[in-house]
Amino acid sequence: MTTAVAKVAQITGRPVPGTENEVLSQLKAAFGSKLKAAKVVRERLVEIVIDRGDLIPVCAFLKDSPFLKDSLGFEHLSCVTAVDWKDHFESIYHIEDYATGCMVQVNAQIPYDDPKIATLTGLWHAADFLEREMWDLMGVEYTGHPNLTRILLPEDFRFHPLRKDFAQEVDRQYITRRKLRGGK
Predict the structure, then answer these.
(1) Cβ neighbours for 108, distance < 8 A, ≥ 6 positions apart
(2) What are phi and psi of 116, to 5 degrees?
(3) Residue 32 lies in a domain
(4) What is the spatial order of strands in the sheet that 102-111 belongs to?
(5) Mean pLDDT throughout 25-54?
(6) Which of 57-66, 136-145, 150-159 is predicted with the least confidence, judged by mean pLDDT?
(7) Would you say residue 30 lies in a domain?
(8) What is the domain-level CATH number for residue 72?
(9) What's residue 159's pLDDT?
């Protein structure tokens, strides 16, 4: 009796030297002029800057997708955050590959007057709560998100407190424990 054994990639938990250069060259080959900036920041970290419209194709290329024969196998979305640069927003994603120890930081630029970007919940379920947090605190709308509701602040809170234009001391809607319990 014979058994066929499929060869499985060995995950050692140790970084693979030079992976970041290979990932960067594959991203440049696949997306070329769509990358506004692309560089190796340090060992095992690649940073790319893209327009918001290119987010889904770039992330689908990074993820191990059965529909794409040329994908890189980055299986974990560990962080979604946003930055207010006063003239534009950036939604920043940290996407990791456990097998090689490499991480790609994707910075998607969003116009300040239209803070909307596509959701990544269809690729990574981890994006669900991370995107809700960024919508709650920064006001970046993740279009197509299945449940884009406040996660940290009360539903009736009118502001997004991590924006640069959020008033720090005046006109702030203060929340106290007494108010949360129904008092005045």
Answers:
(1) 50, 51, 52, 54, 55, 90, 91, 92, 93, 117
(2) -130, 145
(3) yes
(4) 37-42, 45-51, 102-111, 88-97, 76-84
(5) 95
(6) 57-66
(7) yes
(8) 3.30.460.80
(9) 86
Residue 33 lies in a domain: yes
Is residue 77 very low, low, confident or very high in pLDDT (cuts 50, 70, 90)? very high
**Whole domain around residue 121: which residue ranges?**
19-152
What contacts 79, CB < 8 A, 6 or more positions away? 92, 93, 94, 130
Q: Is 0.70 surpassed by the pTM of this model? A: yes
Amino acid at 1: M
In whole angstroms, give the CA distance from residue 70 to residue 42: 25
- According to DSSP, the β-strands at 76-84 and 88-97 are antiparallel
Query: What's the domain count of the chain?
Result: 1
Strands (E), the chain: 37-42, 45-51, 76-84, 88-97, 102-111, 116-118, 141-143
Number of neighbouring beta carbons within 10 Å of residue 180: 9
Residue 94 has pLDDT above 60, yes or no: yes
Q: For residue 44, give both structure tokens.
A: 């095992």
pLDDT, tens digit, for every residue of 5-35?
Answer: 444 445 555 677 888 999 999 999 999 999 9
> What residue has token string 């269809």?
122
Please check whether residue 117 lies inside any domain of the structure: yes
Pick from 140, 166, 22: nearest CA to 88 = 140
Q: Is pLDDT of 174 > 70? A: no
Q: CA-to-CA distance for 25 and 78, rounded, in angstroms?
A: 23
